[in-house]
């Protein structure tokens, strides 16, 4: 399967690692400076003086190893120097090629600096233009503020005018009321009406002036339509002016309405007075009528008295008739009885009429008394009205004086209005000037924008050139990585180990500092430096380095999988929390590697194979399949036959072909497992599975190995010989693979981890080791053990059974 050397991934790309400094140390036998002690002073001699027991344990665990000093190569015989000269010549040729690649990268970097300078100049121009724009905007805003202040003054003036007009309206209402009550003062009201007409004429003149202003505004609108599109805020101000003008019109109309209402009220009051007079005349007529009625009633009473005097005469006449008619009495008895009955009825009717007349007399007397009282009250009211008329005349004189004062105040306000209009005209002229200036600045800005567009096109071209140069640089970097040796060693500094408190080294501590590609180890007692040494590495990362930065330097190794080569990345650490560098759910090197491989497949490959991953832990000669989360205790106790078999080939595997499966199948399992707090060696394998064939493609793969380094201060771990066997045999395996010597290692029935890794890395592997060390710690022995291990792997000077393997 073929793949391109670089991809458009969101994973950070690798940077060039300069390695010639370390090769010099390997040729010259070490990079020691004046005043610095060699490596053996820290690793062997001081530790023997301070803690012999711990050194004895260390020697017991690693007995077959010897540290060869760099000066041994210089003391060799002339017969042995000839093959080294050839190696030196090859190294020199490689260094010359590396220097050429560096020169090309420097030229590319210089070009990039030039591009950045051009970009900086363009950004300055843009900032200057933006400042000019802000200055013009500020000037426009200041003018707008002045206009707003002028408008506020106009509003205050109009409010004052409204108040005074309201006062005048009140006075006019009072005057109209007085005119309605008193007809005599109509001449005075006519003079007031003439004044009102004069005010109307003034208002009409103001209205004409406002119409002229509207015409001017419309003419300005017609002239400056293009500017009004650009100056939307001026539109708002003009609309406000129009609204104010409409308000003035409405106020004038309301004022005219009020004048009409006052005139109507005056007419109504006049009509009311006429009605009162008519009512008075009606009441007098009614009184005369009532007097005539009383006279008629008196006449009727006199007539009734006369009739009462004539009644006995009638009785005599009737008695005479009765005497004359005694003969006919029996015949006329009935008639007489009837006449008696009629007479009795008439008497009753007379009495009723008499009672009614008495009642009428009493009611008429009461009405006369009430009318007399009403006449007295009317006379008193007329006197009060006369007094009120006098008071109203005095008030009218005062109100006339007040009206004259208000007229003078109105004249002053008119003069102020004229001055404000002059200010408005001056501000409008100034605004026109500012508009012209703004148009000039806008033209300049358009020209600068065109220039910016041209510069942007140039910048885009430069970016394309930069991308092409970056691709060429990446290819050169990959070629340089291919010319590098078969094994590289990185060092990652962790924060200070504060919680670690050692009893043997309670005063002393070890501090590590970066210096280019070298690590300076200083053994301190308080603030005093006891000894120091330099450890060269291929790359050193400080405490603030992220996982992305470390992965950027590992992609050259990871891409070797497409060349059918096995890749193995080791990490050495003491604390369990340091394995997050590999196995963090979303930021570890394992997650970033799978994401990088999936993106390269999506870009380059036509058929999309899948990746099969396995994850297991080895500790105390036992292996745990983490994806299955069960122990496989296939190794029996050595008491029954002293034979141990490794049947660990059946591991739970997970197939991943896209980013979604990566998130669902792998990340969720790794984040939910209980293995994070457990000690042991962890192995994560990635193999390629082709969909065309059901079998796995075992020719190439990537293996991440986290090695739990032994803690010398913890005696329980040192007593566990089986763990030490795994660790030591694994280091021998790494040395053989680095030196491309595969025959010297044989499968051990006692070590699971080396046997498993030897199966994965048997085909021309590329090895990368990452040491994780605290920047300052009191655990001196364990830290020095890892530093010595890193230097030995970097120089390939590990000796096993009297057979030296040199690179």
From TrEMBL:
Q: Which GO terms describe its biological process?
A: microtubule-based movement
Region Disordered, as annotated, extends over 1-56
| UniProt KW Coiled coil keyword | yes
Q: Where is the composition biased (Polar residues)?
A: 1-12
Membrane-crossing segments per the record: none
Q: List each copy of the Kinesin motor domain by range.
A: 484-802
Q: Show the GO MF annotations.
A: ATP binding; microtubule binding; microtubule motor activity
Q: Which InterPro entries match?
A: Kinesin_motor_dom, Kinesin_motor_dom_sf, P-loop_NTPase, Vik1/Cik1_MT-bd
Keyword check for ATP-binding, yes or no.
Answer: no
Alphabetic keyword roster: Coiled coil
Q: Which residues form a coiled coil?
A: 84-181, 231-479
Specify the protein name: Kinesin motor domain-containing protein
Q: Which organism is it from?
A: Galdieria yellowstonensis
